[in-house]
Amino acid sequence: MLNRRKILQAAVTTAAGGVLAGSPSSLLAQTGAKTAPVEGAKLVLLGTKGGPRVGGTRSNPANALVVDGNVYVIDTAMGVTAQIVKSGLDLADIRAIFISHMHSDHQLEFGNLVYNMWAAGALRRPIDAYGPVGIEAMAADFWRLNRMDIATRIADEGRVDPATLLHARDFAAKQGLVMSGDGVTVTAFTTPHPPLDNLAYRFETPYGSVVYSGDTAYNPALADFSRGADVLVHEVLYVPGVDELVKRANGTPTFRNHLIESHTTAEQVGRIAARAGVKKLVLSHFVPGDMEWITDDMWRSEVARHYKGEIVVGRDLMEIPLG
Ligand SMILES: [Zn+2]
Ligand SMILES: [Zn+2]
């Protein structure tokens, strides 16, 4: 959301990709031209449904943090490229990708997103990707998987080898600095998501801080990592919905226990947000994310038993301004 000052300060990116610095009236008079704020930050929820099943009213997990026009993509479930395009963000503005863990509802479209940037002519400079151990191998495997198409396009269309423009890096530490640049500093914190480990990320920007939980078992230590953040985006699970999910899928008690023990219930999310003292809590990665009988108020009231701050029940393509 732009305030008037920001609109006046904004530059206009033309359809051709050039940047015009225009007078306010000419900026606002532009039709069909995309306006991109060059200052400010916002979080865009690209996909809010937990789990790998495609369909329904929510897309699978993905987010974009936009800081001064640079786009940082956080998790890349199936559908992430389409959601970025739908949100109005420009693929060419993606600077880095952060993967929380190796479940497919967080990384299935990782390579494809970078490929799609390349195919669209939007991979014009190197981008970085960070994730748990395995992300480097996944990048290499992706280029191998698609080598016939890529070699053909390099030969036929004179394109640059996209593998040289993606720098993927395993984050092997338990906690620490991931990257710093363009006014953004990112740290990661390992949190259990049995049987996997998951990286929660904290983004410090000139406009405030955002913590993204990824998928995590209830972990009070995550509250310490999130302390004082302006926005905490936390995964969330609704127990009565999980019971119905298990029944529908003819699931076993083992499946139910896995879901409960490797995720955080709405009531527990409230405890985390309260302990962390965050200014705003954004619920996302809903499990289940496709049962319409679970209303926003049902999610909210569980959380509000412990957390008295602002609660946002996330929706796809929702924008949360920072600062
Ligand atoms: Zn997940
Ligand atoms: Zn997971």
Structural class: alpha/beta
Bound molecules: zinc ion
Unreliably modeled segments: 1-33
SSE pattern, N- to C-terminal: HEEHEEEEHEHHEHHEEEEEHEHHHEHEE
What's the story with the biggest beta sheet?
A: 7 strands, mixed
**Rg on CA atoms, Å:** 20 Å
Q: What is the typical, i.e. mean, pLDDT? A: 90
CATH superfamily of the largest domain: Ribonuclease Z/Hydroxyacylglutathione hydrolase-like
InterPro entries: AtsA-like_MBL-fold, Metallo-B-lactamas, RibonucZ/Hydroxyglut_hydro, TAT_signal
Domain Metallo-beta-lactamase: 61-263
Keywords: Hydrolase, Signal
Protein name: Beta-lactamase
SSE topology sketch:
Layout: H1 4-9, E1 11-13, E2 19-20, H2 24-29, E3 34-36, E4 41-47, E5 62-67, E6 70-76, H3 80-87, E7 94-98, H4 104-107, H5 110-119, E8 127-131, H6 135-145, H7 147-157, E9 166-170, E10 175-181, E11 184-193, E12 196-205, E13 208-212, H8 220-225, E14 231-237, H9 239-248, H10 253-262, H11 266-276, E15 280-287, H12 296-304, E16 310-313, E17 319-322
Parallel strand pairs: 6-7, 7-8, 8-9, 13-14, 14-15, 15-16
Antiparallel strand pairs: 1-2, 1-3, 4-5, 4-17, 5-6, 10-11, 11-12, 12-13
One zinc ion (ZN) binds next to helix 4.
Keywords: Hydrolase, Signal
Signal peptide: 1-21
Protein name: Beta-lactamase
